[in-house]
Amino acid sequence: MINFCHISPPKFQIDCEWIMPNQLMLAHLLEDEHGDYATLHNGISARNAGLRIMDNSAFEMFMEDRPMFSESKLLELGRRCKAEYLVMTDYPLEPSIKTINVACNQGPQFHEAGFKTFFVPQSELGDLEDFITAFAFGCVSPHVDMIGVSILAAPHALGIDAKNKGPNRYLSRTVLMQKLRSRGLLDLAANNGKKIHMLGMTDGPREIQLMHNARLTGGIYSWDSSAAVWAGMNGIVFDDSPTGLINGKFETPVDFGYSDEISEAARNMAMHNCRVMRRYCEGKFNDGE
């Protein structure tokens, strides 16, 4: 069973926290003290024993061309939201050594502060071997407890622009995981007690099925995405198309300040999507299962 972290506007989480005991909290929202974001997540944590990851918001920083958070700021925000894991700073489209060096610096600091560490391998565009180097570091480093495979890093390592829409992006992470397995790195990670997390969703929920069919899900500890809730809130339900979203991924960024009343229909669609995601995380891909 994959531990899934649903990302959603706080307004939805307040109503439906029962379906989301596992949490991935976003640093840039904690930094902005966006409403009662930290208070909300701390309340959910007090009532549910689930995974608590504070993401470093590298995806958002990269997409908006903003500087990454410093280790001191990540530590401050991690304490604010009472995280279990802190995602260390990573640098998409830059040589792996930059992200590795930062992990060697931040890892001991985060461990000393009482957090577990989360490392996200990166590489320049098309430099698969450099990504492999970074992933191998995560498998053996004492500074790393969890390794994240991101929706930016996977296509980038294979020479695909992460913003590209289509089958290449959709297949990229599954292909990358197969390459990691063939190099023996998934076994190396498991043998050294490193957990593996999938950051975000490429083009639809059936990416989980791709991983399952390739016999890769046994090595995946956790996964996160806003796809289930945010698509449902916008009137979109998961379907039986190859990706699970026949019209493509809903690309509008999540509105975390969403304050309108959520209609019963939208709430039901979001809840339906969350239930579908749960079935997929259990390895069940047919309605009758």
Rg of Cα set: 18 Å
At the fourth level of CATH, the homologous superfamily is Queuine tRNA-ribosyltransferase-like
The CATH topology is TIM Barrel
Name of the CATH first level:
Alpha Beta
**Inertia-based shape:** globular
The number of helical segments is: 13
Mean pLDDT metric: 89
What's the total number of strands? 8
* Helix percentage: 40-55%
Q: pLDDT below 50 for ≥5 consecutive residues: which ranges?
A: none
Order of helices and strands: EHEHHEHHEHEHEHHHEHEHH
User: What share of residues are in beta strands?
Assistant: 5-15%
Content-based structural category: alpha/beta
Q: In angstroms, what separates the terminal alpha carbons? A: 15 Å
Going across the biggest sheet, name each strand in turn. Answer: 1-8-7-6-5-4-3-2
Q: How many distinct domains?
A: 1
- Looking at the overall shape, the CATH architecture is Alpha-Beta Barrel
Taking the sheet with the most strands, its summary is: 8 strands, parallel
Summarize the entry for a quick read.
The chain has helices spanning 10-16, 27-31, 37-47, 58-63, 71-80, 96-112, 128-140, 153-157, 167-182, 185-191, 207-213, 227-233, 264-281, and strands at residues 3-6, 23-26, 52-55, 85-87, 116-119, 146-150, 195-199, 222-225.
What does this structure look like?
This protein has 289 residues and is of the alpha/beta class. The protein has a single domain (3-281), classed as TIM Barrel (Alpha-Beta Barrel), CATH 3.20.20.105. It has helices at residues 10-16, 27-31, 37-47, 58-63, 71-80, 96-112, 128-140, 153-157, 167-182, 185-191, 207-213, 227-233, 264-281; strands spanning 3-6, 23-26, 52-55, 85-87, 116-119, 146-150, 195-199, 222-225. The protein has an 8-stranded parallel sheet with strand order 1-8-7-6-5-4-3-2. The longest helix is centred in the last third of the chain and has 18 residues, at 264-281. The model has no long low-confidence stretch (mean pLDDT 89).
